[in-house]
Amino acid sequence: PVAPIAPIAPVAAVAPVDTRAAQAAAFARAKDTVGQVGAGSIAALRSVLGGRGMLGSGNESRGVASVINAGQGQLGDVARSQAVQSADLAQRTAEANYTGQINQRGQDIGLAEANYSGQIGQRGQDLSAASERRRQDLADAESRRTLGFQAYESAQNRRDRLRQSSMDALRSLMAQVAPRY
After folding, report:
1. H or E element that contains 139
2. Which residues contact 60 (CB under 8 A, 6 or more apart)?
3. What is the mean pLDDT of residues 52-71?
4. Quick one: DSSP state of residue 179?
């Protein structure tokens, strides 16, 4: 009998790439850049407004608010870009895992088919061997029966010859004895 073949171990899922550190560093660089640009913009705004004598006016507060809003928009763009990259990476990882699982399933099915075919082939060989053993056993039994019958006939023939020989010897003696009386 053929021992069943062990199935192929399942392929581990592809782990998503951990980009948190890279994203945190990129966001920190973006914050630094936005902060520097914002600080430079506010300094330039105050310089211009100071030259006109408008420091502390509503124009200054609106300009500072505009610079802050622009900085927040830039940081929002960076965060959105990172979210899109993360989603894209998750999508690619999911597709790779899906493809890997389909390939694994195909290999499992192929292995099962090969194993099944091997077992069927082995079963056929086992049946052929058993049939051959049975045929040989019957032939051996026939040979023993034939040899036994031949031995029986040989012994019977010897007995018949011995009986015939005894009868011939007895007749011969009787013939010798009978004329005298």
Report:
1. helix 58-177
2. 45, 46, 49, 54
3. 84
4. G
